[in-house]
Structure formats: structure tokens, C-alpha cells
Input
Amino acid sequence: MATTVPAPVLDNRTGDLVTAEAIGSLPTELSDRSNSNPAVVIIEAVGALYDAMIYQINRWPSAVIQKVLNLIGITLNPATAATVTQTFTLSNPQQSDTIISTGTQVSTSDGATVFGTLSDLTIRAYITPSGTISLTSGSTAVTGSGTSFASDAPAGYAISTDGVTWYTVASVTNNTALVLSSSAASTVAGSAYKAGALTGTVAAQATVVGSATNVAASKLNTLVNQPAGVASTINNAAATGGTDIETVTSAIARAPQALTSRDVACSTSDYEYFAQKVLGTNSRVKAFANTNVTVTTQGYVTVALLSPAWTTSSTVSTQERASVVRDLSTRAFVGATTVDVAANLQRFDQGTNIPAVLFWRQSRYDENTVRSNVAAAINNLLNPNTYTWGRTIYTTDLVQAVESATGVDRVHSVNGIPAVGTIFQTAANAISFTNNSTTATANAADIGAGKITQNVTYLIDTTNKTAYLVTGVSGTTLTLSSGYAGATGSVSSMTYLNTGDTALTNAYSLPYSNLSTVTTALPSSVQVVGVVS
Output
């Protein structure tokens, strides 16, 4: 990186140095150089005035630079307020829709930082789905008849047979089988049931500006306003976009590009600069020269756009895209063609594409708290606001993010393979295990590319806090890295993760992850497999 030419120092002396030089130059007959000598006192007084004069003289070059910046229209970028995705959790699903109004305020526990929601959030009332369910006292298993759990009662929802006692759904095995996060209090057979969402998310913005509003994940946990039915709130990922007013030093540093690209876009950095001015503060733009989307084409410039108000369904609006192209069309060189592309979010928050990690916990930290910290660390890493465009997500990146989370001792590994990946799923069929045996039997449909694979897949036993690397696959027989610690029998909902690196689909892609950091509904893909004192 080039070094900016510093402002000159017109006089590098200090007032003390000038005073000392003056006193030292007194005639030899004035041998008294103490403060009792009136001549010395006068010199020191004049030296103090000269010190102030030197300071003002040396400020003159910077003052000239700042005056020039004003003349060419370079102003300080204003301070901005951070934004965040805020999650609201109900005490139980409600009989009617819960509407959390625009402007509902949440804060940090000390009340120092306050955010307000930017739009209304509606959490729909519970429904009475088709079919019946059966529960067994002391068991987390729920069996349905004529049910469609995958759509009517997905993970994170709550279900109830009487409208009084509600159970949170931990995972859905299929349309007629699901698992609760806690055991049923009583046995119920063939009962109609109610199901409803417990949570909803909405964008919120700090009520004041400044970088201090970029609060960390899980810090916005206090309801300033208490909407009816809402029990708690949390920010799953850190707030971003809060900035202080630009410093003079920063304005001086960016002035050359601002001046040289005042009217004409020549380099890719010019295109990015102008596009960001159109989209506004906290937008992101990446320009590619001589490229027509994905085809190398002379005379074309493609700009990828991420609006500051992006959502997972719309990374930049049609109007914003049109405004960028309209502005650039007046600045591009003759014969150039500008192509705009909406940023492509590669989502790691749904289906099988969910970041998964197995790690060792430091014993002085609570397990759920550490799992929450890990989820937040992954969310922050896979944040479209900061992640490098189109960069492959390497296992080592995930490992570094996880190991930076408070309470993590180290990422679990077997045979040198870190137990971190972006593919987390449940085997479609039961897998048979034998206690203390290193072999297991799986269904052929669960083995193959993208599924259970030798030296890539970890089978996860959350009950016994153990993970097994599949070190061999022969037909339907799996060889495990160690003897199975659980009881002999078939496991119908064995989860597993595949390690490895995931390339983003194209140069215009950014990752997005939204693992839950609410300690009452943590992602099953984040698991502790050991504790270290």
C-alpha cells in the first residue's frame, strides 16, 4: 500500500528548545542562568509564546489542505446508526396474531444502547393442523397420524394438545414423527393438536449514531417496550453499520480518489465509489472489468450490488439497481457498457446447508452459553456485510471463528480432520449400532456423494456427547473411528455432518448464516463432544 505524503513540519523545534538555545546564547558575563535572573524570566516567557506560535505554524499545511477539501466539495461522512436483525420470542403461541409495532424498543441489559424496530413484525396465531398426535409421559418422541409435521410444526415451533401446556419442537424426522426439546409431562393418545411459531425476526436500528452502536451478538436482550405475549428478545448476530463521523485524516486519505473520479468512471474502484454513493452508507459494491456478468467481454463492466437494506429475498431493489446504472451511464467512458448484478446470497441457514461444528468446551463455562457463542461467531464470519466477495469458505476459516468464541477449548478432530463443515443433515433411514463396536449398518440410500462418505462424515451422538468419523464404507457397513458408546439398536434420527471446503457459486456471491444464538433454541448442528478443565 502506498504511503501518503505527510504534511510538512515547518519548524521542528519546541518552545523549550528555543528557550534553552536563547538562554545558552547569553553573554558569559551573565553567568546567573537561574530563574532569579530577570533576563532568564523574560526569555522563558517569550519562549512560551514562541511555543504556541510554532504549534500554529505547523498546523498551517493541514489547514490549507482542509480548506482545499472544502473548496472541491469533500465533506466529512456523517455518523451512522447500526442496524441489526432482532428476534422476538413469545411465551407461547398465541390465539391471535401478535403484532410487534414499528418503533418497538430493545436495549442492552444496562440500557445504554437502544434499538427500535424498523417495521411491523407479525407472528401468526397458532393453527389446528390436520391429523392427530400421541405423546408418552417422560419421552420427547411425538407420533402423528395424518399429520404434516414438516410444514405444520417445523423445528422451533411449539405444539400443544390442550392449549395450556406447550412443547417446543427440537427437530422433525418426517411428516409423522418429531422430537421435542423436553419430555412430555403426560401421556396423550390420538389427540388433535395446535401448532404455532414462537419467534419472529425484524430489522432494528439504533436510536443514536456512532460505532458504539455496533453491539455484539446476544447483547440486545432487554425489552424496553413489552408487547403482549412476548417473553424475550435477542440479536442473533452482531449489529453492523454504526460509524462515527469521519475523521479529517480519513477524509484527506480518500480525497485523491474522490477528486480524480469526480465525474468519470475509469477504474473498477471508480465504479464502486459511484455506485456506493447512489446506494448509500453501509452498501457494498464489487466491480469487475471487461466482464459481462460471467463472460469475458471487452468494454463491459459488471458491478455487483448489496443494498444497505438487503434481505435474504432481495439483496438490492429494482429501483436501486436502475439508479446505479443511470448514474454510471453518465460517467462511463464512450463505448463502455455497465451491467448491474444483485449480490447472490449463498444461504447456510436452511435444508442441509447449515454450518456444523463439534468442539471441546472449557468446563468453567455453561454448555448452552458456549454453544450460543459459537453460533454467533459463525454468524459473524458468514455475514454478507463483511465477507469477501466470492471467496471459498475453507474449513480453517470456520475453525478459527469457532476457536475465537468464548468458552471453546478447541475444535474436535479425528485423524487430523477438523469436525467443522457446512453440510448438516439427518440420515433418512435408521442406522444400526452395537455397543462398543466400531462397525454400524446403514441404508444404501444414505451412502454416497454428498451423504455418508468415508473420511468425510461424522456421525453425531448427542446423547453420549460423542462423534464418530466414518473411516470406512463397504456396501452398507460403516467403520467408525471408535467403539459406539450408546446402547445396541437402531437410531432412527442419526444426524451427521460432512467436512470440507465450500466454494461460493460465483464471483458475485456472499454467504449468509443465521444460526440461533438463543440459548433456549440452539442449533442442533453446534454440539459439545468433550469438556476440558
Residues 291 and 297 are 5 Å apart (CA to CA).
